[in-house]
# Entry
Amino acid sequence: MMRNRSQYFSVKKRRISKSRPRQSAGIKEIAAKLNVSIGTVDRALHGRPGIKPETAAKVLKTAEALGYRPNVAARLLKLNRRLVISVHLPSEIAAFFDLLRSSIVEAAGPFDSSVELRFRTYPTLEEGDVEAFEKALREHVDGIIMAPGNPRKLQPLIAQASERGVPVVCVATDAPATERLASVSADAHVGGAMAAELLTRCVRESGPVLVLTGNLRVVDHTEKLRGFSERLNAMQSALHVVPVLETHDHPAEADRKTRESIARYPDLKAVYVTTANSLPVLDALERTGHLGKVSIVTTDLFPALAPYIRSGAVLASIYQRPQTQGRVAFEALYRYLTERKVPPRVYPLPPHLVMQSNLDLFLDLQAMGYEKAEGAMLMKANARARS
# Structure
């Protein structure tokens, strides 16, 4: 009888243990798994300095595999302090970067009690981004979201941030040869290729195509040009690219250089503007009588550009979805800071093609805040794929 009773409790105990959810591993288990010290694991999990980036990555990967979930947000709440995230974005081009800024603010809204955003604004990409980064490091922020203008100049600063346990997320463009945590942007190479394919199919006559960009030290701009040129060659396009114009996102420079190129190439057949700085280009084309006579592909979507697309003066615009970029960048950084969820190194968002036929649809979606929901869906889909 006692034996049966003993067997009963033994079986019951096994059933209970099976029904309980598996408990997540602790710091000791992670340290034992990797044969490192508990201090090393603690530094990696909480983003503290004194640990090599490759070691930290191994710890975080093992912690995720073992189900470790540090509640950093709760710990900060107990300490009565908020996470400080520094956001570095240029003022030009406002049509793009203002939308990106506002989407970061909206994404951070639900976490207002635990996050403080500090915005640092400078004139254009590469004009002031180094100084903004240095100031953020002096203030001991917890994380940084930035649009890197010149990755080579920023590389030592990003390395310094990594050593201090301050993760950096690039947005709108990338700094690929640095120790940044992640990069969120529209796929620039694909965007350039889309523009080339569209112009090749629409322009049958042989002639020059003018490409205006911002700054060729910016990865996003060089990748668009590479995608554009490669696609023209692959399609054996009748168009040939004349010397690319860097406008540095200055409207006056874009206007002057456009007029000079029109005078130099009177048989101009097409124009591709790789940044949202397209209005001065369109104004110059209109004043010289070329608007409506050359095929034009622009970048992004904003109210002042819409009439040009609606009238057919602009064939199409490659929409980079700044609101989705901002939301995904914030959520990736926030989840890393609070849950130590390591995001993918690159989020290559597919660009959208806006034309006369779907312009009103995109304008309506912008007004309804569609990109907010889209950014949230992307983060959820990524979390499911990595779980």
